[in-house]
């Protein structure tokens, strides 16, 4: 990884799959609690997967359901800038990926990487303008498929997107739920587009994040290019084990 910029403040990033704001098996709606927990992390940029844009039936039946889309409710006054990518669309609801940022998002685009079958997946690409930085920071929120054959094709699509949309010298952060329990992504992304996984770089192996109560599988990742990382962490079971079935990841990134 590259050396840090002398005296520059780091960028703290977080990624978490929020399971549409419900506990496991949809037993309880916990989005307000989740918002409080995300706020306490103090991240500059938050990568969210499985975030609801709207759900008309839940809005009528669930106590405490916010009027705003969930990514706006989570962002509130803390993250004034956000981008949302609609992946799964039903007659009365839709959900997908979102990025919340304390810095301006000057452009964002959602790329549909769904393959034949019931799963709908996307890659949300946001371009962040960080004050004092000569180059914009590119951030890509990822949620890949459950089938390995689909994930490998989606990784190829991610590589193509990075090659065509991200300048070679720009800082790049790619984070999210890769569903990559067999560990195929790291080699592909480093070989093809120079991305390094922050936990592998720091500790020699990816972080185990699923299920959050007793993490066994390394499904979630943070990758960087043209940046260095200091002490990435998996957030502790309390309070996260009842807020998401994925343990969130946080990293301090130096551009």
Automatic annotation (TrEMBL):
Residues 14-246 form the Endonuclease/exonuclease/phosphatase domain. One of its GO terms (cellular component) is membrane. GO terms for biological process: GPI anchor biosynthetic process. Pfam families: Exo_endo_phos (PF03372). InterPro entries: Endo/exonu/phosph_ase_sf, Endo/exonuclease/phosphatase, GPI-anchor_lipid_remodeler. The keyword Protease does not apply. The keyword Hydrolase applies. One of its GO terms (molecular function) is exonuclease activity. This is Endonuclease/exonuclease/phosphatase family protein. Keywords: Endonuclease, Exonuclease, Hydrolase, Nuclease.
